[in-house]
Design brief:
It is a single chain. The protein is 33% helix and 16% strand. The protein is α+β, with helices and mostly antiparallel strands. The protein has 2 domains: 98 residues, Phosphorylase Kinase, domain 1, CATH 3.30.200; 184 residues, Transferase(Phosphotransferase), domain 1, CATH 1.10.510. The strands form 4 sheets. It has a 6-stranded antiparallel β-sheet with strand order 6-7-5-4-3-12. The chain is globular. It starts with 6 loop residues before the first strand and ends with a helix. Belongs to the protein kinase superfamily. Keywords: ATP-binding, Kinase, Nucleotide-binding, Serine/threonine-protein kinase, Transferase. This is Pkinase_Tyr domain-containing protein. It holds the Pfam family PK_Tyr_Ser-Thr.
Length: 352
């Protein structure tokens, strides 16, 4: 219900009324993704192309409660932060089904993009550009006291032109508190910080304190992957990789990485979380490294270009200014919404 303060509160979900989705104006197209507890569709909302995430409610009371809490947490986080490298939140509703609506990005996941390139690797400038996009998104989250906890290529989405990376999926995101201990619920094992994985050895219900530095570790693994375009801890299962990282201090090899870049990676995945840099420092280190491989263009004397049509250099070395015009992985398919859009909840009954 909407309160006198313009908020919608139901269960654990407290959402400003401006973010409420009107189901009657929500239409669904083809399914474009699926996870363990949710399906994602391409759709339309008020004539805007959108991505529609439908969260499955579960069957047992415990399962329902857990998924509703995760849904509420994700919606709350998405509605609180806006950044050019975070997937734009459009709205949500909890009844009759749990739905999260965001901007539609047609570039696919970073995981798919890298797989399509193999055995080739990204141009180093492009890899660093993507890393900067990710770092800036994480810097924004941490500035708002939010830990993502599930940073991995599957949760990084590219724009249609493959020039910008945006962070998505806040299902495991948590607010950071110096006094509150957090549960051992964690992200995907292969990219997981050792202090997160070690919590599974605790008795059920126990809690262990960790902080935002878990995201720095995950970033190091993602950066290693961007550079090599190989699966980290190759030859190991997800659990084996996490066990080796947590209890044997094993890391992917950084021996063939340029020294300055290797320093960034190895500092981010240090065993001691307090020794890892924060994302403001990571951004500065990445920019410094970028300047060594991509020196600025020589300044052309003003007298040569007196025309108003002079092209000014980009304000910052962001990803969009680093990508080449050529699409190395082929053209992005132009997914079309069905000509006759159907009501979302009508389609929902067919899909489930």
């Amino acid at each position: 219900m909407r309160s006198g303060h313009g908020f919608y509160s139901e269960g654990e979900l407290i959402l400003d009324a401006k973010w409420l989705i009107d189901p009657k104006q929500l239409f669904v197209g083809p399914k474009i993704g699926e996870g363990a507890h949710a399906k994602v569709y391409e759709g339309k909302y008020r004539n805007q192309n959108v991505a529609i995430k439908v969260v499955q409610r579960g069957e047992t009371p415990e399962e329902i409660s857990k998924r509703e809490a995760r849904f509420a947490r994700e919606v709350t986080m998405l509605s609180r932060v806006q950044h050019k490298n975070l997937v734009k939140f459009i709205g949500a509703c909890k009844e009759p089904v749990m739905v999260i609506v965001t901007e539609l990005l047609l570039g696919g996941t970073l995981r798919k993009y890298l797989l399509n390139m193999r055995p080739r690797s990204l141009d180093m400038r492009v890899a660093i550009g993507f890393a900067l996009d990710i770092s800036r998104a994480m810097e924004c989250l941490h500035a708002h006291g939010i830990i993502h906890r599930d940073l991995k290529p599957e949760n990084l989405i590219l724009t249609a032109d493959h020039k910008t990376v945006k962070l998505a999926d806040f299902g495991l995101a948590r607010e950071e508190s110096l006094t509150e201990m957090m549960t051992a619920e964690t992200g995907t094992y292969r990219w997981m910080a050792p202090e997160l994985y070690s919590t599974v050895t605790l008795r059920h219900g126990e809690k262990k304190h960790y902080n935002h530095k878990v995201d720095a570790y995950s970033f190091a693994i993602v950066l290693w992957e961007l550079i090599h375009n190989k699966l980290p801890f190759e030859g190991m299962s997800n659990l084996q990789a996490a066990y080796a990282a947590a209890f044997k201090n094993v890391r992917p090899s950084a021996e063939d990485v340029p020294v300055d870049l290797a320093l960034i990676i190895t500092s981010c995945w240090k065993e001691d979380p307090s020794a890892r840099p924060d994302f403001s420092q990571i951004i500065q280190m990445l920019l410094h490294y970028l300047s060594t491989i991509s020196p600025p263009e020589p300044v052309i004397p003003p007298r040569i270009f007196a025309s108003e049509n002079s092209v000014l250099p980009p304000e910052s070395p962001g990803t969009s200014s680093l990508m080449t015009a050529r699409d190395d992985s082929g053209e992005t398919p132009n997914i079309q919404i069905e000509d006759k859009a159907r009501g979302f909840f009508f389609c929902f009954k067919q899909c489930y």
